[in-house]
Amino acid sequence: MIDQLLGHQNYQLAKHLLDAASLRHEALATNLANLETPGFKRLDISPDFAAQLEKLAASGPTPGPLNLNPTVVQDLDARAVRPDGNSVELDRELIEMSRNTLEYEFLTQFASDSLKRLKTAITGRVQ
Amino acid sequence: MNILPAISVTSDALSAEKTRLDVIGQNIANANTTRGPDGLPYQRKMVTFETQLQAVAGADEISTRTGVRVASIQTDRTPGATLFNPGHPHADENGLVHMPNVNLQTEMVDLITASRSYEANLSVVRTARQMAQRAMAIGR
């Protein structure tokens, strides 16, 4: 019974997106660590993860586990900013990192609120 | 998995930048050392970075993280300037003093770059901690 309560698709989606946001933070941290490394190409979540999400949104509510698989790949669109081929731009990475943190906070807030809604329904008192 | 995402990558980057700052500091301190322990003027040192694959605990096919480390500290062999100063205790028979090949402007630019990189990695650590704290507050 608890599975059905927690199986709501938005909650499941929030869990997967939290994993993706955590993975993206690792990719951005790796980029900033290699800011000065010669020849390093920046990493990011692969673009077909966005395509998977769009397909999921377009298909409406589906039962069963979601099949989302974020992976970290080299960003092929990033141009080299130094003569040695390094493609990491400091400002861009910091902006993407703060955006990612905001998304992470939103998703944790959403997950928290989902659980609190359940508690409100169970106890009858507003949590 | 780590409770702070990518913390080992960031801490390796902080150590590497720290090493680079140390080497720059050494170069600046010895900018006027005309005779070292080997009898020659000081030659500036350079740091080279390279990526290293991190061993991630419980690694799966996704998590090869490339951290950074100091590959080597090498000596810059280009000769420094020579000044004509016959009164100097280290002058050779022609009255020329061989100076170290440290260019203060270059060292200062490197210093600024290294400390900027260090600060960027510090902000990554702060962000990771913020994310972990938010995650631990779910449901509260």
Can you describe what's shown?
The complex is a heterodimer of chains A (127) and B (140). By secondary structure, chain A is mostly helical. Chain A has one domain. Chain A contains four helices and two strands. Chain A has helices at residues 2-6, 9-33, 47-58, 90-123, and strands at 43-45, 72-74. Chain A is elongated and about 65 Å long. Chain A starts with a helix and ends with a helix. The mean pLDDT of chain A is 87. In chain B, helix 1 packs antiparallel against helix 2 (104-136). Chain B is of the alpha+beta class and 140 residues long. Chain B has one domain (7-136). The radius of gyration of chain B is 22 Å and the shape is elongated. The two termini of chain B are 23 Å apart. Chain B has a two-stranded antiparallel ribbon. The A-B interface holds A 18, 21-23, 25-26, 28-30, 32-38, 40, 43, 71-72, 90, 93-94, 97-98, 101, 104-105, 108, 111-112, 115-116 and B 5-6, 9-10, 12-13, 17, 48-51, 62-63, 65-68, 113-114, 116-117, 120-121, 123-124, 127-128, 130-131, 134-135, 137-140.
What key attributes describe this structure?
heterodimer; A: 127 residues; mainly alpha; 4 helices; 2 strands; 5% strand; B: alpha+beta; two-stranded antiparallel sheet; 2 helices
Mean pLDDT of chain A: 87
User: Mind summarizing the main beta sheet of chain B?
Assistant: 2 strands, antiparallel
Helix content of chain A: 55-70%
Low-pLDDT segments of chain A: none
Q: Report, as a whole number of angstroms, the end-to-end distance of chain B.
A: 23 Å
- Radius of gyration of chain A, whole Å: 19 Å
The domain count of chain A comes to 1
Strand composition percent of chain A: under 5%
Helix content of chain B: 40-55%
Largest interface: A-B, 33 and 35 residues
pLDDT average of chain B, as an integer?
A: 87
Tally of strands of chain B: 4
Strand order of the largest sheet of chain A: 1-2
Taking all Cα atoms into account, the compactness measure Rg of chain B is: 22 Å
Q: How many domain regions of chain B?
A: 1
Adjacency order of strands in the biggest sheet of chain B: 1-2
- Give the tally of β-strands of chain A: 2
Shape of chain A: elongated
- Taken in chain order, the helices and strands of chain B follow as HEEEEH
Structural class of chain B: alpha+beta
* Net shape of chain B: elongated
